[in-house]
Amino acid sequence: MLFVALLFISAQLFSQNQTNNSSALNAAETLLNSDSKLSIGGYAQIDFNQPLSDGQRQNATLDVHRLVLLFGYRFGEKTSFVSEIELEHVQEVYVEQAFMNHEFLPWLNLRGGLMLVPMGIINEYHEPPTYNGVERPNLDSKIVPTTWREVGLGFTGRLDNASLKYQLYVMNGFNGYDGGGKFRGSDGFRKGRQKGAESFMSSPTLAARIDYYGLPGLKLGLSTYNGKSQSALYDGLADDDDAALAMADSSVVGINMLGFDARYRNGGFEARGQFNVANISNTDEYNDLTGSDLGSQMLGWYLEAGYNILHGNQSGQRLVPFVRYEQYNTHSKTDGNLAVNDKYNRTDVTVGAGWWLTTGTVLKADYQFFSNANDSNSGQFNLGIGIWF
Amino acid sequence: MNRLLLLIALMAISVSAFSSDGFYPENKALSQLQKALKNKDLELGDCIDLSDELAEGRNLVAYRFTYPGEAKQWYAVFTESKGRYEMFDYLVVINPKGEIETVKVLKYRSEHGGEIASSKWLSQFEHYSGGDLYYEEEISAISGATISAMSITRDIPKVVRIIQSHSNE
C-alpha cells in the first residue's frame, strides 16, 4: 500500500512537470508569467546643447535632462497600477504618472490618479527613442506644455473591430493664479502645470482623445481639452462678496484646446505631423489683473519626415535622417489692448539623424534653425543619447 | 501510517488537478474559439502542450478541432508574446492547409500597445503559411505599439512552423 501511494505521488509530480510548463521556468520567467507581477522600466535623455548666434559666444550645456523610472504592479488580470518617478536635470524630483487602471472590458477601463493629458503625440509618447530629434518639438513645449499631467479620473478603452482607442477624463486644470499670474505670452500655460503636487482646484476640466489606426501604417489622433484655469482667489471667498468674486473671475481664463495629429510609416519612410489651436477667453481681464501678456489664441503645427536607410537590414538597427518644420505662434490672436508680439510667432527647422542601436537605445544629432517674425535668427547644435527599457 | 500516506497522495492529486488548469484550459479555449470564428457548434479535440518547443518560457497550447460534419483537422493555438513590460495572449487558428485563418488578441494587459488587437491590423497574418515575415515589410507598422507588433510578428512564424511539423508527424 505504501509503495502504491509513493508511486502515485511520484506519478502525479512527474505528470505535473510534463503538463505545467511553468514548473520549468526560472524566477524571472515565473514573475513574467504570473498573474500578479511587478514591472520595472524607465527612460533617459542625456543632452549636449550648443546654442549658436552671430557675434556672441555661448557655452554649451550637458544635461541629464530626464531620468524616469517606471514601477508597475499588476494585481490580477483586471487591475494594475503604473507609476513613473522622474529626476529632471538630476536634481528635481517629480512624479510623472501615478494611476490605477481597472479593466471592466477591453473597451471600458476606469483609470484614475496622476495621468498624462492626452493631447498630441509627444505628451503621451515622450520616451526619446519614440521620436526624432534630441529635443521634443517646440510646439510640444510652448503650446502643448509637455510633459503635461494632472490628477484626474475617467474612462479609456479600445474598439478592436473599429481600430479605435478613446480616452475621456475629468482632470484638474492649470494653476492660473496663486498670488500672481502664471500664464504668459511666451509659453502660454507652461508655468501653470500643477503636476499633482499639492495641486488645488476651483473647477474641473475635461480632456478627451480618439485614435484611429485602421489604415496600414497610419495613425490619426484627435484631442480636445476644455475648461477653466484654477485660481487661489476662490478659496475662502464669501458667497456675497461680489467685488472679490469679480476679482477671482478675472484671475481665470477659459481654455479650449484642439489637436490633430498623424503618424505614418511605410517601408523605410516615416512622417508625422501635428496641429494645435488653443482659444483662450477672458485674457483681457486676466492680463489687466496680473500684468501678463497672454494671447487669446495660440496656434501651431509641425511636419516631419525621415527615412530609415537601414530599412531591410534585419540587424534591428535603424539610421534615420530627418527634417522637421515647425510654426507656432503663442500670440496668434490677442484681446483688448494687448499688442501682438512678433517674437512669439516662431519658425523652427530641425535637420538631423538618429541611429537606433536597438529599439530602446538611440544616438541623436541635429541642428536647429530658430527664427521669428521679429527677424531674429539663431541656431543650436544638439547631441543626445536616448534610452528606454 | 499507510492512511496518512494515502491522504497525502489524495491531496497531491487534488493540488495537481487544481494547478493543471494552466494556460487556456478547454472551457476557456472553446469559448474563445467559438467567439473568434462566430460558430457555436465547434468542439475541441485533444489538447497538446507545445510550450517546450518554443523553449522561451512562453506558453503554447494547441487544440485540434473540426467543423461539424467535416473530417479535416484544424488547430486552435493559444499562445503569448511579450510587449514592452507584459505578456499578451492571442489565438492563432490554423486551417487544414497549414495556413493562418485568423489571429485574435485575447488579452492585452499593458497600458500602451493595445493597438495591435485591431482586427484590421491582425488580418495581415491571414493566409500566412511560412516564409519571411518582417515588421514594416510584410506587416505594416503601427505607431504606439511597436514593441508588441514586432514581438507578435517575430513569434507567429514559429507558431506556424511548430503546428505544421506537429501535424505532419
- Number of continuous helical runs of chain A: 5
Amino-to-carboxy terminus distance of chain A? 56 Å
Strand and helix order of chain A: HHEEEEEHEEEEEEHEEHEEEEE
Annotated CATH homologous superfamily of the largest domain in chain A: Porin
Helix-strand topology string of chain B: HHEHEEEEHH
Number of strands of chain A: 18
For the biggest β-sheet of chain B, the strand order reads: 1-2-3-4-5
Find the structural class of chain A using helix and strand composition: mainly beta
> What is the radius of gyration of chain A computed over CA atoms, rounded to a whole number of angstroms?
25 Å
Stated plainly, the CATH topology of the largest domain in chain A is called: Porin
Q: Let me know the largest β-sheet of chain B.
A: 5 strands, antiparallel
Please tell me the overall pLDDT of chain B: 88
Oligomer: heterodimer
Amino- and carboxy-terminal Cα gap of chain B: 47 Å
Tally of discrete structural domains of chain A: 2
* Structural class assignment of chain B: alpha+beta
Q: Show unreliable segments of chain A.
A: 1-34
| Low-confidence region ranges of chain B | 11-20
CATH architecture of the largest domain in chain A: Beta Barrel
| Beta-strand proportion of chain A | over 45%
CATH class of the largest domain in chain A: Mainly Beta
Which key phrases capture this entry?
heterodimer, A: about 400 residues, mainly beta, Porin, 2 domains, 16-stranded antiparallel β-barrel, two-stranded parallel ribbon, about 10% helix, B: about 170 residues, alpha+beta, five-stranded antiparallel beta sheet, 5 helices, 5 strands
Q: Would you mind describing this structure in some detail?
A:
The complex is a heterodimer of chains A (389) and B (169). The N and C termini of chain A lie far apart (56 Å). Chain A is built from five helices and 18 strands. Chain A has two domains: 1-34; 35-388, Porin (Beta Barrel), CATH 2.40.160. Chain A has 389 residues and is mostly beta strands. Chain A is 12% helix and 51% strand. By secondary structure, chain B is α+β, with helices and mostly antiparallel strands. Chain B has one domain. Chain B has five helices and five strands. Chain B has helices at 2-19, 26-37, 51-54, 119-122, 146-168, and strands spanning 43-49, 60-66, 74-82, 87-94, 100-107. In chain B, strands 1-2-3-4-5 form a five-stranded antiparallel beta sheet. The longest helix of chain B has 23 residues, at 146-168. Chain B is globular and about 45 Å long. Classes of the chains: A mainly beta (389), B alpha+beta (169). Chains A and B meet through helix 1, helix 2, strand 1, strand 2 and strand 9 of A and helix 1, helix 4 and helix 5 of B.
